[in-house]
Amino acid sequence: MVNPVHLRTLLEVTRLGSFAAAAARLGYTASAVSQQMSALERDTGVRLFQRSARSVVPTDAAMVMARHAAKVLTDIEALMAAASKTQDTTSQELRLGIFPSLATYVLPRILRSPTWKGLGIDLRVSVAEPAQTIQGLRTGGDTDVALVYQVGQSGLAWPHTINRQWIGDDNFRVVLPSGWGFRTDAKVAADHLSDMPWIMHHPGTSDATVIERLFAGCNLHPRVVAYSDDFHASLEMAAAGLGAALVPELALLHRPAGVVVLDVPEIRLARNVFALLINDKKTARVQLFVDLLAETMGNLGQSVK
What we know:
alpha/beta; 11 helices; 23% strand
């Protein structure tokens, strides 16, 4: 499915002629606009821009898509208005499974937004890790939409009848105690962090396996001083000087004093976040909710860069 937020950004890029101008108009960074356009190319399988070191030029396909996008967005606005008018008499129950980071940092912002009040959704929420949430999607389960993540090709599986929609990427970042003498955003080679004390995921989990392979490929051999799958606990222990940690950007929205975030070029890893939807529950209201989720997560991701 194409994200309407990306279509609106495409309209501004083609109208104004650059990512930077569109970013200024929409209140994003140029990097966020670039990421949205890359996601739109990935979702549609169509090349939308000719990119060079100094410019981006819309392709013919981009111009055609932009013309159709204008009508699509107008129809969505009409749908939102219609939903708002009927919200007092009708509502749709949505049973949502969501993992803790998204429930902590993204969902509350949606529930406070004016757009949410017009959707007419009666929300029922279950906060759990992805493997548990997916179980609720199966026949006779108690979940309509599951918000899950994968790290690399880690082993999540879901019924083939489920519709999957990409929401965004939650990039991992290396954090260190500030007392170790590194400045925040310093670019550091991975092997310079080898043999330092590290706080790692519990071994045996799919996430831990992916991270261990990545570290080994970077010639990074951590000296493990703690195991923790709780990112808040990992951050607090790092702030207290116990060790380095690899945490996702969403967790850094509540970054404690006493840690610095490094740029380690060899470590490029993300939690790929998806919405898994039961097809007969995928109404226009639910799709608008998922799109709002993707937009909110994208904006939060830019705020920690």
